[in-house]
Amino acid sequence: MATIAPPREMEKTEWTRSPSAHEALQKHFEENPDAMPEHPHKWDTSRSDIYAEHRWQPIFKEMRAEGPLHYIPESPFGPYWSVVGHKAIQHVEALPELFSSSWEHGGITILERLDDEDVEEGQERFELPMFIAMDRPKHTGQRRTVAPAFTPTEMKRMEDEIRQRTGETLDGLPKGEVFNWVEKVSIPLTTGMLAILFDFPWEDRDLLTFWSDWSGDTELMLAGQGMEDTRRGIQREMAAYFQQLWAKKSQEEPGQDLISMMIHSPAMNQMSPQEFMGNLVLLIVGGNDTTRNTMSGIIHALDKFPDQRKLFEKQPDLIPNAVQECIRYQTPLKHMRRTCSEDTELFGQQIKKGDKVVLWYNSANRDEDVFENADKLDLTRENARRHLAFGYGIHRCVGARLAELQLRVLLEEMHARRMRVHVAGDVERVRANFVEGFRTLEVEVTHF
Asked: Where is this region: Disordered (predicted)?
């Protein structure tokens, strides 16, 4: 694999001083209020303010009542089709050749792909191929490479270590004071898990969170080329760091970590630098943001629905189903995008070749035709497993079992300690149209 040279040298201390993507974007718009994007269409759910203010649910409910598919002619990300119904999303996901995921056609997020004529003079074409943003057959080979890391056998092997780290984290929480659950629990547990999956140097594991935040925020493009250049530089430095790990591991015996699996896979050991970087972004964001935000979402939801918290406390046998219901309720990734590969008809609408089709999983998981009282957390919900938070079809999340295991162990260890967690201060949600989550969740721990 070709080497990736970082654009500049950066000491580890400089990494830790760098602002998060969220902080950088917030500062940019505070200093440049006229740069805030406009959303003229009332159903343009690409707008991030409805998620930061947690008022997206009635918008999608109104859309579902009018039909499963809607055309949004204008948005900061270009025109797109919104698929908002549960069955409709399954239908689109079941046709991966007709509705492409390939980065060559635009990839998996609502972010508009620049056509050649739209690239400004001196601006770099920047594509990040990754296996979730590939079509068959290449998708199949690369997915099969990493899938062995997430088999039931591997989950059983990792459970004891996950349980030990979770217990130690919970036992170390502040007593009798308010603290940020995101900072003290959700980030350490998921970052530690990523470090183990990559066999990443433990002392540098906080870099994984930093890289994840900068890579997973699709709205950075709205802040102009300067912010995009910053992100690209950070991603190159991430790739250069992993390049060193790759070089080291290529001299060692095959291991069970993801880097070793890539090195010894014919489907992935000849990746281009951009493809290597893309798959790192996929595995880091997929393994970090989703589980991290559900760990916070569980706490917030149980506090919002105290009757369900009492059920959790009285009936620990509900925990496996509670995990599925909390994933449905939280839906950590709001959407995936597909691109139509040929003219077709979909739910009575004419979709043109090249049209962008956005699948809103958060809407599907609140579809009243599938989930009764969908806006309510219900730990006894019989069909909670029908959620689409992990996607559907060939692109269903390869790490779903690991996410479920981490969440189940968290709830089991909380119950074993008779922990009751109250929201007791600020709640700040992620301002983004892709990741659903929390920046801050101030809580206090008591016991039942």
From this structure: 1-22
